[in-house]
Design a protein that fits this description.
4 domains; six-stranded mixed sheet; single chain; alpha+beta; 11 helices; Sulfite Reductase Hemoprotein, domain 1; binds iron/sulfur cluster
Length: 425
């Protein structure tokens, strides 16, 4: 672990962190998003000791310790490694890009307990060195068919459990296509490996290598790729509906689970430590990280959960209709060196606009610069930081031409109010 391992890049890890405006960003990939309360305490303590006390919950259910200095990073790594929270090398860490149903093994409505399968796939990805050539963002997902569907997640190779003639099977969907294959659970790792190796071979187009499975699918079609991987049972299936939003209390069989969202994916080390204490005292001793930037606390009874919502609810999202969920905000100042504005602080103030909640869904994107990291797709309103002020883009992306420029926070609020009350000129 030397200074050469510190690189600027889009997919950081712990062993290959990314430089950011507030120091190094150290990302921890936790198998299946399952975090013991003891490990959560260790991470929270490390974030305070070696970082700036802020932690991100990423859109792939990873935890990111922020604000680590170059001199503190080796100590942080030694500490995390001592507690078994790190991979052996940066390549192994990078390839372990698997999202799993967050209540794996606990959800009575799931078709099977996918925890051993998730572990086996990660082991395969790490041990089969040829797979380390996969692009940094290339990811897998494994859905157990339970309450929290992963259908809204982008995975290059997605597996979803179903019941097929009374047998549990997995649908395999590549690049998000409708054309899917059907496989047996025991073949999942082999199928994942074959598809990924075939992708690596096909991606080596001189001067323009394929980055994602969707690129390959759009060029040759999913059917060809599935057939080439030896998947003969194929059909057309749209993605299933998401059944539940994770926020708030859910009764799942005997187990209750409380979902607490981190506004804009950010929580404090103290907040994580508090959740770990709750998990130890009132829950199952585990935290489950979700790709929806929420943490699930399993094993809570309703009374305890409701008391907690009152006590700590303001710092977390506990309702699916929380206005903060209607805003996408990137890291912003001071954490990102490209940022021109404090996106999180401003997004919190825009969340108090009553007109925001007139319709549902993500309506506002607050971006620190025109790169638009928080939301690559078009949004009804986009506030883009430029020179400490905002430009306003309507029905577009952060990089699109703005309708208005040079708005301070108050002027941006007024512009949004006008827009949502139908008075925008
Ligand atoms: S959009 Fe710009 S300011 Fe925001 S995180 Fe990306 S690079 Fe940084």
């Amino acid at each position: 672990m030397t200074a050469e391992t510190l690189v600027k890049g889009w997919c950081p890890g712990a062993l290959r962190p990314m430089e950011s405006g507030d120091g190094l960003l150290v990302r921890l990939r936790l198998t299946g998003g399952i975090l013991s309360a003891n490990h959560a305490q260790i991470i929270a303590k490390a974030a305070m000791q070696y970082g700036n006390g802020l932690i991100d919950l990423s859109g792939r259910a990873n935890l990111q310790i922020r604000g680590v200095s170059g001199s503190q990073w080796p100590h942080l790594i030694a500490d995390l490694s001592r507690h078994g929270l790190l991979d052996d090398d940066a390549e192994a860490e990078a390839v372990r890009n698997v999202i799993a149903s967050p209540l794996a093994g606990l959800d009575p409505s799931a078709f099977l307990d996918i925890r051993p399968i998730v572990k086996a796939l990660e082991h395969r990805l790490v041990s089969e060195r040829a797979l380390h050539q996969l692009p940094g963002k290339f990811g897998f997902s494994i859905d157990d068919g339970g309450q929290f569907s992963l259908r809204d997640q982008t995975a290059d190779i997605a597996f979803e459990a179903i019941k097929n003639s009374r047998e549990t099977a997995f649908i395999v969907r590549i690049g998000g296509d409708k054309q899917v294959g059907l496989i047996k659970p025991e073949n999942l790792c082999d199928v994942a490996s074959t598809l990924a190796l075939n992708f690596i071979k096909a991606s080596k187009i001189p001067d323009n290598p394929l980055k994602r499975m969707a690129n390959w699918v759009s060029s040759v079609g999913a059917e060809v790729i599935l057939k080439q991987a030896g998947i003969h049972d194929r059909s057309v299936r749209p993605k299933r509906e998401t059944k539940l939003a994770p926020f708030g209390y859910h009764e799942l069989g005997k187990e209750g689970v409380l979902g607490l969202g981190a506004p804009f994916g950010r929580l404090s080390a103290n907040g994580l430590s508090a959740l770990a204490n709750i998990a130890l005292k009132n829950g199952s001793g585990e935290l489950r990280l979700t790709p929806w930037r929420a943490i699930l606390l399993p094993g809570l009874n309703r009374q305890v959960a409701e008391a907690l919502i009152v006590k700590i609810g303001e710092n977390f999202i506990t309702q699916p209709n929380d206005p903060r969920l209607q805003i996408a905000a990137c890291t912003g100042m001071p954490s990102c060196r490209n940022a021109n504005v404090n996106t999180h602080e401003d997004a919190l103030s825009f969340a108090t606009l009553e007109s925001l909640t007139k319709t549902s869904g993500t309506r506002l994107h607050v971006s620190g610069c025109e790169k638009g990291c928080a939301r690559p797709m078009a949004t009804e309103a986009v506030l883009v930081g430029r020179g400490r002020l905002y430009d306003l883009v309507l029905n577009g992306k952060a990089s699109d031409k703005p309708l208005r420029t040079g708005l301070n926070n108050a002027a941006a609020r007024r512009a949004l109010e006008e827009l949502w009350s139908g008075e925008a000129k």
